[in-house]
Amino acid sequence: MLRFVSKNVIEKLITLFFVSVLSFLIIHLAPGKPSQIDPLNPKFTAEIIERFQKEFHLDKPLHVQYAYFYKDLLTGKTISWKDNAPVLTKIGERFLNSLPLFIVGTLLTWTLAFPIGITAAIRRGKFFDRATTFLSYLLISIPGFFFAYILIILAVTYLKVPILGMSSFGVSYVNFLPWLMDHLWHLVLPALLSATSGIAVLSRYVRGQMLEVIHQDYIRTAIAKGLSFEKIYYRHALKNTLLPFITMFGLLLPGLIGGSVIIETIFSWPGLGRLAYEAILNRDYPVILTINFVSAVLVLAGTFLADLLYVAVDPRIRL
Questions:
Q1: Between 103 and 212, where is the model more confident?
Q2: What domains can you pick out in the chain, each with its CATH number?
Q3: Residue 293 pLDDT exceeds 60
Q4: According to the model, what pLDDT value does residue 256 have?
Q5: Helix crossing, 285-313 with 2-29: angle to 10°?
Q6: Nearest of 194, 309, 196, 295 to residue 248 by alpha carbon
Q7: Which of 18, 117, 131, 201 has its CA 20 to 30 A from that of 241?
Q8: Interatomic CA distance for residues 174 and 146, integer angstroms
């Protein structure tokens, strides 16, 4: 087991190195090099641009810039070009804002998708199966930003309540309960929206996997023995369908950034996804590269967790 883990960690570290190199090269290949800042802005004189390039080592070869940047990143010295704030501090603050949205959306997805998928498989061809299939493909087909704008219009037009941001703007609360209710209300719509497509996709996977299992001999034996519905389908059948879902579970961590860019931007939620969007608009390359690096770490951490879960579920994999 130790050999399996150590080999996996080494592979992940090598992958992380190549990802960091590619991210750095892509930033420099994109239109508008980092060393140019904003040449059309009259406030940036030649002296200011030269001083800026020397301060951030942009006048040196690419491999030297790469070494300086990731040295500063790993030592916590990376500075945002927009406001001179430490990048890791900004990411830490936004991470805490994204966490409730991520947790609630994930819980909604995984607690609702499995009962829906299992019930649809058991009632194959009946009304519930047809209705959930139609709704799933509808939610998968509708773009997230379009669905978000519809929800915002409905909430503002009919409910007459603010829903943008993490809390109501300009409102101060003396008691904890009104403050909590206000934050929960602002959390409901973006969390629900982040969960809709996940529920639609995951429930289809659950249905497909269950259909392969529920007609096997050991399920018929369990039914003949008179076991309860929960024991048959949730304990025996579901247990043998979990392996494909481990991969999906391992990809939850990257969704903390990648899956929230659109939702956080539309709902003005000050999280990691919105920080990435703002950094792209402001050409804040240290923030962009740091978020890319954090995203890569989350992807590799998720796949590493999935590998460990694979071994726990099926010990033959370690061989």
A1: 103
A2: 2-74 (no CATH), 87-318 (1.10.3720.10)
A3: yes
A4: 61
A5: 150
A6: 309
A7: 131
A8: 37
Residue 312 dihedral angles phi and psi, to the nearest 5°: -65, -40
182: left (phi over 0), alpha (psi -120 to 50) or beta: alpha
- pLDDT band at residue 1, thresholds of 50, 70 and 90? low
Q: Which of 130, 134, 136 is nearest to 113 (CA)?
A: 136
Beta bridge partners of 79: 86
How many other β-carbons are positioned within 10 Å of the β-carbon of residue 214? 19
Q: pLDDT tens for residues 119-160?
A: 888 888 888 889 988 988 888 888 777 877 787 787 777 777
- Give the end-to-end CA distance of the chain in Å, rounded to a whole number: 9
User: Per-residue b/e over 110-126, b at no fewer than 16 CB within 10 Å?
Assistant: bebbbebbbbbbbeeee
Instruction: Round to whole Å and give the CA distance between 205 and 247.
Output: 12
Burial letters 253-291, b for 16+ CB under 10 A, else e: bbbbbbbbbbbbbbbebbbbbbbbeebeeebbbbbbbbb
pTM of the model: 0.76
- Under the banding of pLDDT at 50, 70 and 90, the label for residue 199 is confident
Closest CA to 194 of 132, 271, 120: 271
